[in-house]
Amino acid sequence: MADEQNLDNQPPENPEAENSVAEDLAARVQSLEEQLAAAQDQSLRVAAELQNIRRRAEQDVEKAHKFALEKFAGDLLPVADSLERGLELTRPDDETSKAVREGLELTHKLLLDTLARHQLVAVDPVGEPFNPEHHQAMAMEESMHAEPGSVIKVFQKGYLLNGRLLRPAMVVVSKAPADAPPSIDEKA
Questions:
Q1: Which parts of the sequence are annotated with region: Disordered (predicted)?
Q2: pLDDT above 60 (res 183)
Q3: pTM beyond cutoff 0.70
Q4: I want to staple 172 with a disulfide (CB 3.0 to 4.6 A). Which of 25, 47, 147, 153 is the partner?
Q5: What gap in Å lies between CA 86 and CA 182, rounded to an integer?
Q6: Where are the beta strands (DSSP E) in 63-168?
């Protein structure tokens, strides 16, 4: 009982001290919550960065697969050009070069089919409007029959590899004749 009396006789604790301890604990809790929020934010940022790195790596691998043949295909283009020039120089009605022409045609077709299987497509824009993204203008020529700004001759075909320009087509672009009457648009 004496112990109970001592407990009852103890002076009450300092209310200011209790408030101070409560404020310290509240401040500590607030600080820990801020640290937790910062750590969660940092964790989300790291996860997003890892996802971006993974996505970029997948894109790089995809591009590497798509365009791995770019240099090799570029080296084969002069072969296709030479076969085309050989076909242009031989006449289809000449009996002496008929077998040579047939061989050139078959070889040329085989090469183009092989290139097409690997997504290498020829750009042969005769009659199409000039497109500076796929064509390289070598000259301009007056023409009464073609729309101004359209391709009238192709010196060398261009090629696209998986939609990316490998080599531009070298072309001659039409322009209106100098002595032609002005069009309605030019009068206005």
A1: 1-22
A2: no
A3: no
A4: 153
A5: 42
A6: 120-123, 135-142, 151-156, 158-161, 164-167
The secondary structure element, H or E, covering residue 32 is: helix 15-67
Distance CA 169, CA 130 (A): 10
- Residue 20 burial (CB count, 10 A): 11
> For residue 72, what are its two tokens?
């090799």
CB 146 within 8 A of CB 152: yes
Query: Residues near 19 by Cβ (< 8 Å), separated by ≥ 6?
Result: none
- From the list 86, 84, 90, 104, the residue with the least C-alpha distance to 154 is 84
Instruction: Determine whether 52 is exposed, middle or buried from the number of CB atoms within 10 Å of its CB (0-12, 13-18, 19+).
Output: exposed
For residues 150 and 31, give the distance between their C-alpha atoms in angstroms, rounded to a whole number.
Answer: 71
User: How many residues are present in the chain?
Assistant: 188
